[in-house]
Design goal:
The chain has about 150 residues and is α+β, with helices and mostly antiparallel strands. Strands 4-5-3-6 form a four-stranded antiparallel beta sheet, with helices on both faces. A hairpin with a 3-residue loop joins strand 4 and strand 5.
Length: about 150
């Protein structure tokens, strides 16, 4: 177990977070996904979070991320979604014709904590393999985004 060192604590708090594109539009194509990953990495670096994995399935995003305990999961999601949406609209203004109303992401999200052990590897593999053919091993662990 690798613990991170905070100012007055040691921790390992990791989340599997999923959020969808507004109206479930399939706008997260290969080039946009690569750019989104760069954006999320930059955000995580700025806030001292650790983005362990990211994957998309054209209409939703999965991230596996570690953050300090002072960061509430809702705040973590709010920052990731708001900053990435702004950057995507700047880089790819053409997606506005599919996503009217000034929002890239839908309002809801799903967040779960992930501990050490076998589930950690399953979740990490699941997130990394979004948008690819899933193996039989991963199918029983399919997670659903509740909207």
């Amino acid at each position: 177990m690798d613990l991170r060192l905070g100012a007055h604590c040691r921790y390992q708090i990791r989340y599997h977070i999923v959020w969808g594109v507004k109206y479930r539009r399939k706008v997260l194509l290969d080039h946009r996904t690569k750019y989104l990953k760069l954006i999320l990495e930059d955000i995580c670096e700025a806030y001292d979070w650790n983005l362990e994995a990211m994957g998309t399935d054209e209409d939703h995003v999965h991230v596996f991320i570690e953050a300090h305990p002072k960061t509430a999961p809702a705040v973590l999601v709010q920052i990731l979604k708001s900053k990435s949406a702004k950057a995507l609209f700047v880089k790819y203004p053409e997606i506005k014709k599919y996503l009217w109303g000034g929002a890239v992401w839908s309002v809801g999200y799903c967040v779960r904590t992930v501990s050490d052990g076998p589930l950690e590897q399953v979740v990490k593999a699941y997130v990394e393999n979004q948008g690819q053919h899933r193996s039989k091993y991963l199918k029983p662990y399919q997670l659903k985004l509740v909207t």
